[in-house]
Sequence to fold (262 residues):
Amino acid sequence: MPELPDVEVYRRVLDSTSLNRRIAEVATYSDKVLQETPPEAFRARLSGQRITSSLRHGKYLFAGLLSGDHVGLHFGMSGALAFLEEGEEDPRHERCALLFQDGSRLVYISQRQLGRLFWIEDLEGFTRARELGPDALDADLDFHSFSRRLAARRGSVKSALMDQSVLAGIGNIYSDEILFQAKVAPTRRVRELGEGEVAGLYKAVREVLQQAIEADAQPEAMPPGFLLRCRAPDGACPRCGGSLRTVKVGGRRGYFCPSCQG
DNA sequence: AGCGATGTTCGCCG
DNA sequence: TCGGCGAACATCGC
Fold:
C-alpha cells in the first residue's frame, strides 16, 4: 500500500531494524525489479556494506550506505518491506533480501513486480532525473510555495495532487482523502480554486499524511472521519452519511462525497 | 471469466 | 506545450 505514509512506515522499519548492521549477503529473486542494475552487480555492491542512514522522498525510500552510495526502493502498487528473524518463513512475492549475519533479513516484496530497486551513486541526480517535486511533508514547503507549485498546473486538482513533480508522495488514495478533508471535489480545475480552498488543501495535505503515519498507515487505526475507511462502491460518507460517488480522473478511480465536496 | 487494484511510463490525440 | 486518455507491466481476488 505504498503512498507516502506507507513508505514512511517502511522507512521506520528499516531504521529500527537494519541500521548499522553489516549485510552479509544479498539474495535477488527477480531481475525485473532490478532492471536498471545487473543482479550480480547489485549483489556485489551491497554485500559487506553497512546501512548508515534512511531517507524518504515522496514514495521513494533510500538506504544510505557507508560507501556514500544509496539503495533506492520504490514499491509500485503492491510492494512492501518486512524484517524477518531467522526461521521466519519467506513471504510470497519476495523479490530481494538483505541477509544479516545473525540470520535475520530485510525483505523486499513486490507482488505485481511494478516496484523497483535502484543502485544509486548520485542521489540528487536520481531525484532530478525523475523530476520529483518536494516531499509533501517537507518542512520547507510553506503555503506560498505550495500554491505556486499547484498553480503551475491547469488540469483537475486531483491530477495535480497526484503529480509527483508538483509534490512527491501523494497517490490515488490519499489525494481522495485530502480532497475530502478540504471539502473540494476531485474534478475541480486548479485554476478556479479560491485562495481559501488552496489554503484548506495545504492544511489537509499535512494533516492527512501526518495522521496516516501516526496510524502506521493502517486504515482501521485512522480517525473515524477518514474517507479511505469507507472507500468502497457502496460506501457512505463518514461526515453526512450520503452515498459516495466515483469519478475517473487521470486514469484513476476517485471516491468523493458529492454533497460535502463542492 | 472478467475486471479492477495504493504506480509509473509511454504513445497518441486535441 | 500541456493535459487527458488508454495501454502496458504481473498478479491476485472479488
Observations:
- Residues 32, 76, 78, 93, 110-114, 153-156, 159, 248-251 of chain A lie near DNA strand C (CB under 10 Å from a C1').
- The two ends of chain A are 28 Å apart (CA to CA).
- The helical segments of chain A are 4-18, 39-46, 123-129, 143-151, 157-162, 172-181, 195-214.
